[in-house]
From TrEMBL:
It comes from the Bacteria. The chain crosses the membrane at residues 12-34, 40-60. This is Histidine kinase. Keywords: Membrane, Transmembrane, Transmembrane helix. It comes from Metabacillus bambusae.
Length: 71
């Protein structure tokens, strides 16, 4: 899975991670009206935020290595 994340460009990776962090709470809130789930919502949210963090850290690593090569 990490290889697939690292294969994306830094802009796409950051956009995916940022959008996951912004929109996943909204989607889970709206889904809570349809499917009552107590602790499962928090577990799903933690997994989504973990994956989003991987995307953002991958983008930051690519940007850091790209900027470091120019000097």
């Amino acid at each position: 899975m990490l290889d697939k994340i690292k294969a994306l460009s830094e802009k796409v990776s950051f956009a995916i991670g940022f959008s996951l962090i912004l929109f996943s709470p909204i989607v889970l809130f709206l889904m809570s009206f349809l499917f009552p789930s107590g602790k499962w919502t928090a577990i799903i949210q933690a997994i989504v935020w973990g994956v989003a963090t991987l995307f953002i850290l991958s983008a930051a690593d690519k940007r850091h290595s790209r900027i470091g090569k120019k000097r």
